[in-house]
Design goal:
mainly alpha; 3 domains; small GTPase binding; Importin-11
């Protein structure tokens, strides 16, 4: 895809390097120049190109990822004092932003995930209907790092979409009369539910299946890992646990926000009937595997954390679907 470029990646990279200088005058001048470029066509895609350039200075790449997140937050939608990012550049970014998620550096990976989430908040599902399928496509056949980063992005996308509903609800109640608030809230919740129901329908089966698979791996590997917490069996198990915990966070939001509360519909939610008993059994299995007087280790801390997160998840699901 070709698009009009006002900014050039090399120009922006040099400004980022100057902004990292210990010379305060040079640093301030570079920061002002970067700020003046925020509303210029091509700036967002230039930052993305710098993040993608593995041969560029690492600190400059990290700063580019932070600038990218901040610029998307401020410029993605038009404001009274800015035209925002053009439709052509938005389309370009939606097409290429997922190429950036497989970052070795976790700090840059966090910024990229936040960028995807902020774009999804504005553009999913109307302008970006393929977001979920694009993410799932990277899971199948992807490296261990890529799969982990994909789930991390999913977590932040769901977190952003769920906060969108809460913010809209609060604004409706604050600005409207009682009758107007009720009508506006119903429309807002209906639109939000349709978006979240759509993403839940696409993700739930995959997330649930992978979560169950990782749980089986964790439970079967715990005895040997607890016996030798610093041995060879512990490290792979800890990596499985981190992914399992991330999937649990995703699962919680899908169940809590992806279905209308059964207190309103007076009908059972199939996902709750399927998942809640398994979550309770998982908490019991982890608790039973933990020795009562085990010495503190990363494996023991993992088990304790897992039990706590499972119980908290069950409580939140019960609040949403009593």
């Amino acid at each position: 895809m070709q698009q009009q470029q006002v900014c050039e990646p090399n120009q922006v990279l040099q400004l980022l390097l100057r902004a990292l200088s210990h010379d305060q005058a040079m640093q301030k001048q570079a920061e002002q120049a970067l700020h003046s470029l925020e509303s210029q066509p091509g700036y967002v895609s230039c930052l993305a190109a710098i993040v993608a350039n593995g041969e560029a200075n690492h600190s400059a790449r990290w700063m580019a990822s932070v600038q990218l997140k901040n610029t998307v937050s401020k410029q993605w939608r038009p404001r009274y004092d800015s035209r925002g990012v053009s439709q052509e550049e938005k389309a370009y970014m939606r097409q290429h932003i997922l190429d950036l998620i497989s970052q070795d550096d976790s700090k840059i990976a966090v910024q990229v995930a936040l960028v995807v989430a902020k774009i999804a908040r504005s553009d999913y599902p109307r302008e970006w209907p393929t977001l979920v399928s694009d993410l799932l496509g990277r899971v199948h056949g992807g490296s261990t790092l890529t799969v982990r980063r994909v789930y991390f992005v999913m977590h932040h996308v769901l977190k952003e979409l769920s906060s969108k509903r809460l913010a809209a609800d609060q604004r409706n109640f604050a600005e409207a009369s009682a009758a107007q608030a009720a009508a506006a809230l119903a429309a807002s919740c209906s639109g939000h539910r349709s978006s979240f129901a759509r993403i839940t329908a696409q993700l739930l089966d995959h997330v649930w299946g992978q979560w169950c698979s990782d749980l089986n791996t964790i439970v079967s590997g715990l005895p040997s890992a607890l016996a030798a917490p610093s041995g060879a069996a512990a490290q792979p198990l800890l990596l499985h646990f981190e992914r399992w915990l991330l999937l649990l966070k995703i699962l919680r939001r899908l169940i809590v926000f992806g279905f209308q509360s059964d207190a309103r519909t007076l009908e059972p939610v199939p996902a709750v009937s399927t998942c809640a008993p398994a979550l309770l059994q998982a908490a019991g299995a982890l608790a039973a595997a933990r020795p009562e007087r085990a010495a503190q280790s990363r494996v023991v801390a993992m088990v304790d954390r897992g039990v706590l997160k499972l119980v908290k998840t069950l409580c939140q699901i019960q609040e949403a679907h009593p």
